[in-house]
Specification:
171 residues, single chain, mainly alpha, elongated
Length: 171
């Protein structure tokens, strides 16, 4: 058994779970605080639950593209001759998470802009607060669609920032 690989795999699993739980927790708290202070998830407002679920799924999709780059930096730090320091790993991880957060905010803004253009005079937040399930499903579907379309580009952007070692070009 390769103990270094096993330890690295355990570290990546713990890191993935920890980052995911933390980001989703913070995202949910921000969503509640900024838009839906009086709503609960006890089932009183199904539209809010659908909308919140869509946002959490969108964040999960974006995180699934961010976390591999973070684990790549950790792998590089353990497999290269020149080690990458812990503060550098934290710096890269923070940068990747910030890019993911900015992308998530941009995707959400694009969804609300698109929804507003498609449905003049309909305030999606008020409709969701009024338990309008149709609006919640439409907004959530647009959100997930745009996230799925943009996720590969987000992954490419973040992976371009991974500090891979320089290789010689023999051609």
């Amino acid at each position: 058994m390769n103990t270094q690989l096993f330890t690295l795999a355990l570290l990546e699993i713990l890191l993935s779970i920890g980052i995911s739980v933390g980001v989703i927790f913070i995202s949910y708290r921000l969503l509640k605080k900024l838009f839906f202070q009086k709503e609960t998830i006890q089932g009183d407002n199904l539209a809010f639950i659908i909308f919140t679920s869509g946002i959490m799924l969108s964040i999960g999709i974006i995180l699934s593209e961010v976390i591999p780059s973070i684990t790549n930096v950790i792998r590089l730090s353990t497999t290269q001759n020149e080690t990458i320091s812990v503060p550098t790993i934290i710096g890269y991880s923070s940068l990747y998470l910030c890019i993911g957060f900015i992308c998530a905010v941009c995707i959400n803004a694009a969804v609300f802009l698109l929804f507003s253009l498609l449905t003049k005079g309909v305030n999606e937040f008020q409709e969701i607060q009024r338990n309008n399930i149709a609006v919640a499903i439409l907004v959530t579907t647009i959100l997930i669609s745009i996230t799925l379309i943009a996720k590969d580009s987000i992954a490419l952007l973040i992976s371009s920032l991974v500090p891979y070692p320089e290789v010689s070009n023999y051609l």
